[in-house]
Design goal:
CATH architecture of the largest domain: 3-Layer(aba) Sandwich
Shape: elongated
CATH class of the largest domain: Alpha Beta
Largest sheet: 6 strands, parallel
Radius of gyration: 39 Å
Order of helices and strands: EHEEHEEHEHHHHHHHHH
Distance between the termini: 117 Å
Mean pLDDT: 77
Strand order of the largest sheet: 3-2-1-4-5-6
Strand content: 5-15%
Number of helices: 12
Number of strands: 6
Oligomer: single chain
Number of domains: 2
Length: about 290
Amino acid sequence: MEEIAIPLTMPLQDKYETVCVFGTGDFGRSLGYKMLQCGYPVVFGSRKPQESSLVPKGAEVLCYREAVQRADVIIMAIHRQHYDFLAELADDLRGKVLVDVSNNLRINQYPQSNAEHLAQLVPGSKIVKAFNTVSAWALQSGTLDASRQAVANRTDPFIIPSGWLSDSYVALGILGFFLFVLLGITSLPSVSNTVNWREFRFIQSKLGYLTLILCTAHTLVYGGRRFLSPSILRWCLPSAYVLSLILPCVVLVIKFVLVMPCLDRPLTKIRQGWERNSKTAKKAQYENGRADM
């Protein structure tokens, strides 16, 4: 199928110099196609010019020597292992610009870079490295290529609220799970027998409530803005994670009320055996006073 180059502008052909492209592969054709759109006359150099029928319309396909004689800028869109023919064209390439667009398959594949290798093969030419970070697909897609979209749509994740929600969701889940495992380990008889009652009470009470808070916050952040949004409720029924939050939230609300000083102090005295206006307590206090005397 023959490609048709649609110029982006309508410049005069005499205004631009002819560009030669060595290689009629995907990248060579895509680069030549883009050059034609920009108004540059393009000539392709190929080992078999008669068999190169997929070049863009408006470009010529010649053998290497004839193509070099038509242009002062030659783009090397061929692999390094096919550079040997350049030694025969050293005289024709003298003083001309060779643009190296190649990339090796792996790091340190050759002792020298491709540009240095070209400089040794054609010492009279000017070697330039360019276009090696652009793919053939990006050249063909133009403004729709993914690399340009990624640069244009690049945003700071710390500015977007969803970025904070995602990081907080993961961090709260990891911390809550760690404390949950710690509570489970300390509940084992072999472990609980090695700690005193103060340590065991601290772990099961203080860390237990902290674990409940972290896990509840983890689920709340998971819902985010969709937590109580009626638009996402299917058949007017809440999601499973909403139902799972009812009991933990009730426990935390009651605990928050009970830790208020006006309630916490009387409850602490009651747990310690204090009784208000009790005849038994007064009698016991009187008897203890007489015994001391």
